[in-house]
From TrEMBL:
InterPro entries: P-loop_NTPase, Sulfotransferase. It comes from the Bacteria. Pfam families: Sulfotransfer_2. This is Sulfotransferase family 2 domain-containing protein. Gene3D superfamilies: P-loop containing nucleotide triphosphate hydrolases (3.40.50.300).
Length: 213
């Protein structure tokens, strides 16, 4: 998450949808740079993957005018994003960066989880494997984010979008950061059952953004 007061611009970070890349690109212009959720406090509540509703509440607490700012985020094909989230979980296990998550995973699965283990255990009303609705919408369903870029075209769309917002950016200045390594094409992770599971859980955004398996 990044806030640029002078440009009246806000970036909200949907997990595993180019968020590190966008935050890095915006860093030099940002007045507020989010931190890991473990580092927030009452004075600084801004963490990386806070939802639009949470950020709006933080704006109101600070006395900032939410409607004066342009809000944008990046969306990604849910079939692909969930594979990326799975590999993030594997990296956490391997590197022991977050012992609490490692303990929960090990307690649940007894060993390194398969993709199916991970997929069927997700909670879409949580900050990582969230749906677009959970991330971007108010409780009444109102979309709180103004502009949506697609991960699949991120370099081009981000450079064009920022340039239009008064932040001249060339496509070559948009690096791809924090990408999953050693992973296959996302379709190879699915069978008919798991594909249908994602279609049911994330069907609204698959239809909204024109994604396919």
């Amino acid at each position: 998450m990044r806030i640029l007061h002078s440009q009246k611009l806000v970036f909200l970070s949907m997990p595993r949808a180019g968020s590190t890349t966008v935050r890095n690109t915006l860093d030099q212009y940002s007045d507020v740079k989010s931190v890991h959720v473990s580092k927030v406090d009452a004075d600084f509540p801004f963490f990386h993957h806070m939802t639009a509703s949470e950020l709006k509440a933080a704006f109101e607490a600070k006395g900032w005018q939410w409607d004066d700012y342009r809000k944008f985020c990046v969306v990604r094909n849910p079939y692909d994003r969930l594979v990326s989230l799975y590999h993030l979980s594997l990296n956490i296990l391997a590197n022991q960066r977050k012992q609490s998550l490692k303990g929960r995973l090990m307690a649940r699965f007894g060993s390194v989880p398969t993709f199916e283990d991970y997929l069927y255990a997700i909670n879409t009303n949580s900050h990582l494997p969230c749906t677009f609705k959970f991330f971007a919408c108010a409780p009444d369903g109102e979309v709180l984010i103004d502009d949506l870029l697609k991960f699949e075209n991120l370099s081009t769309e981000l450079s064009d979008y920022l340039t239009q917002r008064g932040i001249p950016t060339q496509e070559q200045e948009v690096p791809r950061l924090n990408a999953s390594e050693d992973r296959r094409k996302y379709r190879s992770y699915y069978d008919d059952k798991s594909r249908q599971f994602v279609a049911e859980k994330f069907g609204e955004e698959i239809d909204r953004f024109g994604y396919e398996f």
